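Please, structure for the following, as tokens.
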Amino acid sequence: QVQLVEFGGGLVQAGGSLRLSCAASGRTFSVYAMGWFRQAPGKEREFVAAISSSGISTTYADSVKGRFSISRDNGKNTVYLQTNSLKPEDTAVYYCAAGTSLSTVVAGTLRFWGQGTQVTVSS
């Protein structure tokens, strides 16, 4: 069982940055691949970024490549999402999730989800 709590969201102007964090409970964090997803009002949840259990491999949605960076600290049971050059279309609730592999995370059919943190980008 993994419990996930996100924080670090907020209101930022276009072009700004935010660092989202997701803290995981339990001693098994390091075996899970982790991912970030987002859901804007009236839209489906979409994949943003994922990182392998070791942190060696990462993958990103095309819409955030070059602007967002995912990382993790297994010693702190935390995964991060650094968001730069934010755009109004990045406005959404951002969720972290845990899965058994990078491909499982990208597919989004995951058991463990956080409650989400709101990111609002003003123009």
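The two ends are 40 Å apart (CA to CA). The first helix runs from residue 102 to 107.
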